[in-house]
Amino acid sequence: MRIRATVAALTGTLALSALAVPAAQAADAPKVPNLASFAAKAPADEVVGDTKITKITVNGGKDIVVGTSAKKTVKIAVTATDPSGIEDAAAFLWHGTDFDADDGIDGSMVPEVMEGDCKVVNATTSTCITTVVADPKANIYSNVLAGKWKVWAIAQGKDGDHVSQDSYPATAYVKRASKLTTNASPEPVKKGKTITVSGALTRANWDTLKYAGYTGQSVKLEYKKKGASAYSTLKTVKSDTKGNLKTTVKASADGYFRYVFAGTSTTPAVTSTSDFIDVR
Fold first, then answer.
1. Residue 97 pLDDT
2. What is the model's pLDDT at position 104?
3. Which residues contact 4 (CB under 8 A, 6 or more apart)?
4. At the top level of CATH, which class does the domain 23-175 belong to?
């Protein structure tokens, strides 16, 4: 089932009291998280007192790469400070154009329990970890969700002061998992003869839950002579309408061929397994 979640109310520290889900999908809707320990109402972008969020790190600073079946667990670390110390802090990820609009949130990664696992840094500062899940069969339901996501975060001091922000400037990219192959032939081959190096660049399609060719992408063909320590780039090849790659080179010496894709804002970089050619 595809779940379209819309945050409609924020009470306590965070109470996602309404999720806009079609009736037929209601049974599959995520549990409504609630952090009852926060007494004050905390809508988006509100500061009460001197609590500050100083840093947010999503997935250890790495891209969130999602395939077609497996769930991806993502940790969001919120570091916050308050003269009285930090009571709690939490966060979730959302994608859309307007947090407050009824149809603004096209997808969301909301934890079942909106409470961070906090570790004290010092008397005024703590880092709290919230765990969310990216699921291609639930909240990562369409290719339009690939790219940069936004972070909603909240923190509360032990004196009751709190701060919330609906679009914290943290790096959070959700990308369609990619695959790349290389096949060099014929093998063995005589020195000076033509070698054909083929391959395919594919990526996860969240609309169909299958992998499909990534078309019109520049991919580098690299070569490493047997015994050498590093690869060198021979040429750049563009994937065709089905994601296929194909080019030719002259056989010079025993060595390894591989394709390397640098990645885009929606698809991660990937390097194929190398293919050895025996030149005689």
1. 82
2. 58
3. 20, 21, 22, 105, 106, 107, 141
4. mainly beta
